[in-house]
Write a structure and sequence with these properties.
The chain is mainly beta. The protein is 11% helix and 31% strand. The strands form two sheets. The protein has a six-stranded antiparallel β-barrel with strand order 1-2-3-6-5-4. A six-stranded antiparallel barrel has the order 8-9-10-13-12-11. Bound molecules: 4-(aminomethyl)benzoic acid.
């Protein structure tokens, strides 16, 4: 049996907005997420609702999207908790918590991830994972993929985002410019390894020298400066998880459901 190195990786399934309750067979798997407690999955806010569909299902314990195994766990998303300052027209605060219909039972294939609480990111390498598009494909990738990326420092990321005059879309969606307290850049300057459509909401994790087997989530896949697979000047942008710890604690860790 192949065990996942990412037992907290969650697939988010979408159904038509018309449907209050939809069957899992109707769900379209279009975003990633991460399990943080028995009841909560962390995701990107822009993933939660679109004009025509919204997140209804969470699937854990799977390496392949559609291949259910003994370890597969499917849970309905019972409630969405958006970060209070999130606005769907902007790229700031791209973070949401999904409360599940019932508690997830942990086992070796389904485990929560730890969250980074300090702003400072000491590592310069991190791992990304997801079922998002690869290359020119328009579809999700059936297998969970992972890759290593470099974390850009604030100065470099600031400069790159400021230079982004060609992406007018971002100027509208970031009215106060790039905000390094809310987000950070990561990517691969040499070969353009990157997250892409479908990876959104999924985690970017690091490991520390002290605890090499413990994944710490520092980012949530959010958007790209110029789509996907950009080189040095066009990294991926990730929600800075550490900035949202007080809110996450309030919503998820203090919610002791019976
Ligand atoms: C997207 O469209 C998307 N390279 C997500 C992440 C990145 C680009 C696009 C980052 O959801």
């Amino acid at each position: 049996k192949i065990r996942s190195k990412y037992p907290y990786m969650t697939l988010i399934g979408f159904c038509d907005n018309e449907k209050e309750r939809c069957d899992i067979s109707e769900a379209k798997w279009k975003c990633g997420g991460s399990l943080i407690t028995p009841w909560y999955v962390l995701c990107a806010a822009h993933c939660a609702v679109t004009p025509y569909d919204s997140a209804k299902w969470a699937r854990l314990g799977n390496l392949k999207i559609n291949d259910s195994t003994k370890s597969t766990v499917n849970k309905r998303i019972e409630r969405m908790m958006f970060y209070p300052q999130y606005q769907s027209t902007q790229l700031y605060h791209d973070i949401v918590l999904f409360k599940l219909e019932s508690e997830v039972e942990f086992n070796c294939d389904v485990l929560p991830v730890c969250l980074q609480t300090e702003r400072d990111i000491k590592q310069n390498k991190a791992n990304i994972a997801g079922w998002g598009r690869t290359g020119s494909s328009q579809h999700m990738n059936n297998h969970l993929l992972e890759a290593e990326v470099n974390i850009y420092n604030d100065t470099e990321c600031n400069k790159l985002m400021f230079e982004c005059v060609e992406c007018k879309k971002e100027a509208i969606r970031m009215p106060r410019g790039y905000q390094s307290d809310y987000m950070f850049c990561a990517g691969d300057p040499e070969n353009g390894t990157d997250t892409c459509q479908g990876d959104s909401g999924g985690p970017l994790v690091t490991r520390s020298a002290e605890y090499p087997h413990l994944d710490i989530q520092i980012g949530i896949t959010s958007f790209g400066k110029k789509g996907c697979g950009g080189k040095r000047d066009a990294p991926g942008v990730y929600t800075r998880v550490s900035n949202y710890i007080p809110w996450i604690e309030e919503v998820a860790f203090k919610d002791v459901s019976e």
